[in-house]
Design goal:
By secondary structure, the protein is an alpha/beta fold. Helix content is about 25%, strand content about 20%. It has a single domain, classed as Rossmann fold, CATH 3.40.50. The longest helix has 15 residues.
Length: about 270
Amino acid sequence: MIGMTTTRAYAIAGVITGALLSLTGCGEVPAEGPPVALVYRGPASCDGCAESVAAILASSDHDFEVQFVGPDEESEATHETLSGADLYVQPGGGDDVAEAMADLGQPATRAIRDFVEGGGRYLGFCMGAYLAGSDPGMGLRRPATTDAYTALPDATTTTVDDTVLQVTWGEGTRLHFAQDPPYLIPSGVPGEKILSRFASGQVNALVRPLGEGTVGVIGTHPEAERDWYSDELWELDTDGLDHENALELVDAVMGSPAEPSKASGPKPKD
């Protein structure tokens, strides 16, 4: 599905993994220090998606310690592992939400839900936004849920393949990489903030409280790298990369802006 080239993914993963070796072992996190972000990497995500998200986090001014969690990592998403984290991130993945839920497994989804309700933060990109919904999903957006944007009669695209979609962001508009994105039905809970809408008006990105924690989700992929695009699609995306929007979403989930952003301003096209 979505993802960067294997060489690119391994290069980013190598840099991040090297930095992580300075952490205490076996998933233990120092009692004090920079915020810890756990990024899922496994069958419920796509090749390169976890590494792209981790690169965004590493470029932010929140000074995250980024760790990968998943069935083939040193640690999985458990109550114990999440107890030392500030942020859990679910990257993009396949096109079957029920299958992704099964890949995550009930112990992990229960731990993630308890983590957020107890004061943690969840950030979901595309499949991560689908998984925050319900039936199937983790119920992180209850009573609201999530559904496929392309199925709407007024959607600006009907393709489930890679594309670029115009969305609102702040006072302007951007073209974001997308692949069968969800749209988000607002829950109307106090404190919910809409960050982005599709050109047809449906919500693309929002942040809301859940229990003592925070949930941030987005349908499109502002974290996308250049090698996610075909040459033809890159020519259509006249805005270039949208990492500044990804960083603003991170800021919103964390509850405070990190200024100045290390990726501030639109990335120029090559």
